[in-house]
Structure formats: structure tokens, C-alpha cells
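WARN retry 2 of 3 for item q-0093 after timeout on previous attempt; input resubmitted unchanged.
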Amino acid sequence: MAVANDNAWKICDQLWVGGDYDKIIDKMSMTTPRDQILALYGVAVGWTCNQPPGAPPGYPK
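OK item q-0093 returned
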């Protein structure tokens, strides 16, 4: 779970500085299955980073 939380924060950090959602997901999907990244994104936006600027509302399907 600690790794998942670290990855959620990585997503938050990139979104807070104006990172592009699709590029973040694509880059992280190179080393981790995409469905896991999307689940992490949901946690990141929903809980970890409280909907940073640039994040689409909720999380993608």
C-alpha cells in the first residue's frame, strides 16, 4: 500500500504543476498495468491531493 500511496502522490505532484493527465497516465503505464494506474488516479484525486488544478473531475473510466 505504501508504494500505491507514493504513486498517488507522484500523480498529484505532476498535476499540481500543470502536468497533462494523459501523459502522466501513459508514462506510468509503461511500468505498471494501466488499470492499476487508473485506480491509483481515482485514489489520488479523490483522497490524496483533493482535486488538483488540471485534473479532470472524478477519475477516468
